[in-house]
Design goal:
Blueprint lengths: L1 E6 L4 E8 L7 E9 L1 H5 L6 H23 L8 E7 L3 H18 L3 E5 H7 L12 E6 L4 E8 L2 E7 L5 H11 L6 H9 L24 H14 L5 H30 L3 E5 L6 H13 L3 E3 L10 H13 L24
Parallel strand pairs: 1-4, 4-5, 6-9, 9-10
Antiparallel strand pairs: 1-2, 2-3, 6-7, 7-8
Helix pairs in contact: 2-3, 4-10, 5-6, 5-7, 5-8, 6-8, 7-8, 8-9
Bound molecules: 5'-O-[(R)-(carboxyoxy)(hydroxy)phosphoryl]adenosine and zinc ion (ZN).
């Protein structure tokens, strides 16, 4: 079976081809990505209308590239999968429209995939895939959640952010530090030369006793420090503030992840979503998990942020697990707001 995956929920156009046979683990044949970062940078954030228009331009050339790299033809595709939500409505509609039209033209079934299920399962494409059950820490630009994952489609929400997502905390703090969108990776780079103990920033909900997160207060604390530094902070002061901000976010994420392992009695942690690429987060989680003899799994770095591979993979794993039976369809919808716990 070959699954063509299409991702278009935000500012990355992604296409991929995944293959599997019987019960064997699906493997990635090829994937291609076009990031719209340059397009949105001038606006300091994603402009939904521009994102939609660019997905229209990118998806078919990306598809051609993926098929060529995999040595496959459209006729070899057995199933078309697209991101059905959550995400920007207009952007989702482009991937859904292209995917459903293609499947209809080929006479093949089509499947709408939950974006976060894609992130959550993406470590299964790594050289060190996890085994069920595990705790998943989903940390992206729009979501921060801890989930208990018993198997494909069996997701129980343990806790989530009550305001900003971890990626949002990185991006908003980075903006306050004068860094370009998307600020997460830029803040992490600036933090390398900084002293994480230089600024005392809050660790919101660290001792709340539950598995919820809150990052809005941290952004306000960073704003206060930026104002105190005045109009011309030195590079060292900016690096120190970046390192202190990163340390605050990482400490809360690590602390709550370890609590989730304790509460559930599970010994495997899966980290997914864009913030999962953060080197400091990986170092701290590796150390904390080693201490309690838990295993931690990550997606390969290129598959941490949005991509088509995770969408094709999630579709393949859902079909393999008997969770979904893809059907031929001439109609489709998208779900801009869609809770992961709501899917079966
Ligand atoms: O999963 P993702 O690509 O898109 C969403 O579904 O939201 O996550 C994007 C988020 C952005 O907030 C970005 O700043 C953050 O992930 N991010 C990082 C790093 N790489 C990406 N944050 C911190 N450190 C990084 N290295
Ligand atoms: Zn994402």
């Amino acid at each position: 079976m070959q699954v063509l995956g299409i991702e278009s929920s935000c500012d990355e156009s992604g296409v991929a081809l995944v293959q599997w046979q019987g019960g064997a683990a699906p493997r990635l044949l090829a994937h291609a990505l076009f990031s719209q970062i340059d397009l949105h940078q001038a606006y300091g954030g994603v402009v939904p209308e521009l994102a939609s228009r660019d997905h229209i331009r990118r998806l078919l050339p990306l598809m051609r590239q993926v098929l060529a790299e995999a040595g496959s033809r459209l006729a070899d595709v057995d199933l078309v999968a697209y991101t059905r939500g959550p995400g920007l409505a207009g952007a989702l509609l482009i991937g859904a429209g292209v995917g459903c039209a293609l499947a209809a033209a080929l006479g093949k079934p089509v499947l709408g995939v939950h974006h976060l299920e894609g992130h959550l399962l993406s470590p299964f494409l790594s050289d060190d895939p996890p085994q069920f059950p595990f705790v998943a820490l989903l940390v992206s630009g729009g979501h921060t959640q801890l989930m208990q994952v018993q198997g494909v489609g069996d997701y129980v929400l343990l806790g989530e952010t009550i305001d900003d997502a971890a990626g949002e905390a990185f991006d908003k703090s980075a903006k306050l530090l004068g860094l370009a969108y998307p600020g997460g990776p830029a803040l992490a780079r600036l933090a390398i030369a900084g002293d994480a103990a230089a600024f005392a920033l809050p660790r919101p909900l660290l001792h709340s006793g539950d598995l919820d997160f809150s990052f809005a207060g941290l952004k306000t604390a960073v704003l206060t420090q930026v104002r105190k530094l005045g109009a011309t902070p030195t590079l060292q002061q900016r690096a120190d503030l970046a390192a202190s901000t990163q340390a605050a976010i990482v400490e809360v994420l690590v602390n709550k992840s370890m609590r989730a392992l304790r509460d559930t009695g599970l010994t495997r942690l899966v980290v997914a979503g864009g913030v999962g690429a953060n080197a400091q987060l990986r170092l701290s989680l590796n150390a904390a998990c080693a201490k309690v003899r838990a295993r931690v799994h990550y997606p390969e770095l290129p598959l941490c942020s949005d991509n088509g591979a995770m969408i094709a993979l999630a579709a393949a794993m859902r079909v393999q697990a008997g969770r979904t039976r893809p059907e031929r369809s001439l109609t489709f919808d998208v779900k801009p707001r869609w809770a992961l716990g709501a899917i079966g």
